[in-house]
Design a protein that fits this description.
The complex is a heterodimer of chains A (298) and B (284). Chain A is mainly α and 298 residues long. Chain A has 15 helices and no strands. Chain B has one domain: MetI-like (MetI-like fold), CATH 1.10.3720. Chain B is globular, with a radius of gyration of 24 Å. The N and C termini of chain B lie close together (10 Å). Classes of the chains: A mainly alpha (298), B mainly alpha (284). Chains A and B meet through helix 1, helix 3, helix 5, helix 6 and helix 7 of A and helix 2, helix 3, helix 5, helix 6 and helix 7 of B. Chain B: Its main location: membrane.
Chain lengths: 298, 284
């Protein structure tokens, strides 16, 4: 995403050969026409129709939006969505930073082990991982069986279909999106800086706190923005490992659209989620250009 | 691709020696051990869900049993002999292959136009083309359901192809654009000045140079469709459902170890394809 968005595109003007290195306008338009056709029919039209449905039924009608603001239950869903996204982002940072440090480490085997773990997590399908969490956390699941056998608990604990399970499973999905930007930032710090700090008498922790950590903050920022935005719109994981008490905006949209068939309300919720996401992407678009190397990953 | 080599850091003269110059008292050793334990726990958390499904898929019990007492391939046979699972698998494969083809062609052409072409409003076009990555999938899924339902396109191959191509095209654009930006276009100019036509120089000079990235993009597009679950959840119906939608239903409905077998296969396909991409791109 980053490299495409942030790169100046008139570079070819400055290349030797001038206009010969550029394709003519009619040819360029012909090359991009299939994409524009695809996006118009398959993307802009459906999203536009959804927004229209949230506003007109068929004349201007804002009652769906009023419902979101006025009914406390829906306000609490909004609040829970932000709360879970925030918790997941914080957890991802706390768990992700040490992994990014290990990946950037000079000890080759440590770095390889951390990279392999991130690779496995990132490329296992989300649905598969959600299923695995159910298997692990359910009433007679792996975790409960292990704890009963070890005598840690007497009766199986309720570990799933609650907020904690949603946070654990969502953090797992979003961790790589935190780790990779931080890793990219850490890798770009010249090793000499830390060495200089150590030579001047700083201990390992002082050197980390005053050199490595501050210089890696752009990566932390990028990772946090990415995690938070992705967490806001998450559907599969909260739908499967969450319960009735953990409704968030995405699962509420699904419920309204597929079970209760209240389309204008589902459309209004979708539009709200869309606007929240797009606003954050625009406000924090700097974060996306910081995380070079992310482009090739997701 | 995921992790580049760290050669430039190893090249720095002090890097190797820095960590070993200072003597560590025993308190520091304890701290290092503690750090190692914390890191090991986090790495365990990262790989645990992927690793737990394999033993469960091999267990004999009807319910989830971990660790399994006896090993069997029974659940894999069950999967292969179940017409519903097979129908869903073929449907998904067909969609993913067609999506990969469509997204690769459309995305590669657009990437050429965006990096090398003369287009008005390029910034806006780029932002638009990456839009499907930004919009939450649940919003896109509901929006598609809204137009597909009256047209009876739910559970339909064409509907899925359209939806998944929209979602896959940004991956192709990003991958191929990066390759085009790395390509040295003086090579093409040389071909042109030696008398090759625009088409000929593209086919003989540019295309062979970017083709490894185009192949990688095609695999990305295939996987993005094959593993896609949110949009597929909304636009499937009883007449046509993908493997992910079938899995979603079964997880909610009855948790048999067949799902573990299917999960293992899905994770295996994804990890093998990505590992292959990583191995080949590292050589270049």
């Amino acid at each position: 995403m980053a490299s495409v968005l942030s790169r100046p595109n008139d570079q070819s003007f400055r290349r030797p050969g001038g206009s010969a290195s550029r394709y003519s306008r009619p040819l360029s338009l012909a090359l991009i026409a299939p994409l524009l056709l695809l996006l118009s029919i398959g993307f802009l039209y459906p999203i536009g129709l959804l927004i229209k449905l949230s506003l007109f039924t068929p004349e201007l009608d804002l009652s769906s939006y009023r419902k979101i603001i006025e009914q406390p239950i829906y306000l609490s869903v909004m609040a829970r969505t932000f709360k879970i996204a925030l918790f997941v982002t914080i957890a991802s940072f706390l768990l992700g930073y040490p992994v990014a440090l290990a990946m950037a480490s000079l000890k080759r085997r440590l770095a390889a082990a951390a990279a392999a773990a991130v690779f496995i997590a990132l490329w296992s399908p989300v649905l598969v991982r959600s299923y695995a969490w159910i298997v692990l956390l359910q009433r007679n699941g792996v975790a409960n069986n292990a704890m009963t056998e070890l005598g840690m608990v007497e009766a199986p604990l309720k570990l799933i279909y609650n907020e904690g399970a949603v946070i654990v499973a969502m953090t797992h999905v979003l961790l790589p999106f935190m780790i990779l930007p931080i890793f990219a930032a850490l890798r770009s710090i010249p090793q000499e800086y830390v060495c200089a700090a150590r030579t001047l008498g700083a201990g390992a922790s002082t050197a980390f706190l005053r050199v490595t950590l501050p210089l890696s903050l752009p990566g932390v920022f990028a990772g946090c923005v990415m995690c938070f935005i992705l967490a806001l719109g998450f559907y599969i994981t909260p739908a499967l490992v969450g319960g009735p008490g953990t409704l968030i905006v995405a699962t509420l949209i699904g419920q309204q659209a597929t079970v209760l068939l209240d389309w204008p309300f589902a459309a209004a919720l979708s539009t709200t989620l869309l606007i929240a996401t797009l606003t954050m992407v625009l406000v924090f678009r700097q974060a996306f250009s910081i995380s070079k190397g992310f482009a090739s990953v997701d | 691709m995921l992790i580049e080599t760290r050669s430039h850091r190893l090249a720095s003269p002090l890097a190797g020696s820095c960590a070993t110059i200072w003597h560590r008292p025993w308190a520091a050793t304890v701290a290092v051990l503690l750090q190692g334990a914390v890191l090991a726990l986090i790495l365990f958390y990262l790989v645990l869900p992927t690793l737990v499904i394999l033993p469960i898929s091999l267990g004999t019990a009807n319910h989830i049993e971990f660790p399994p007492r006896q090993l069997t391939l029974h659940w894999y046979r069950e999967y292969l002999s179940d017409p519903d699972w097979m129908a869903a698998t073929w449907f998904s494969l067909k969609i993913a292959l067609a999506t990969s083809l469509a997204a690769t062609v459309i995305g590669t052409l657009a990437a050429i136009a965006l990096t090398r072409g003369d287009l008005p409003g390029k910034q806006a076009l780029q932002a638009l083309s990456l839009g499907p990555m930004v919009v939450p999938h649940v919003v896109f899924g509901v929006a598609l359901y809204l137009i597909f339902a009256p047209l009876e396109l739910t559970g339909n191959f064409v509907g899925f192809l359209l939806a998944h191509t929209v979602l896959a095209v940004p991956y192709v654009l990003i991958t191929v654009t990066a390759a085009l930006q790395r390509f040295d276009f003086t090579l093409e100019l040389a071909a042109l000045s030696c008398g090759a036509s625009r088409t000929r120089s593209f086919l003989l000079i540019v295309l062979p140079n970017i083709s490894p990235s185009v192949a990688v993009a095609a695999v990305f597009a295939f996987l993005s469709s094959f593993d896609e679950a949110t949009v597929a959840f909304f636009i499937s119906d009883t007449g046509g459902k993908t493997i992910s939608r079938k899995m979603f239903e079964d997880i909610d409905f009855n948790l048999t170890p067949v799902i573990a077998a299917v999960s293992t296969l899905l994770a295996g396909v994804s990890l093998l394809l990505m590992a292959a991409i990583r191995a080949t791109t590292r050589q270049h």
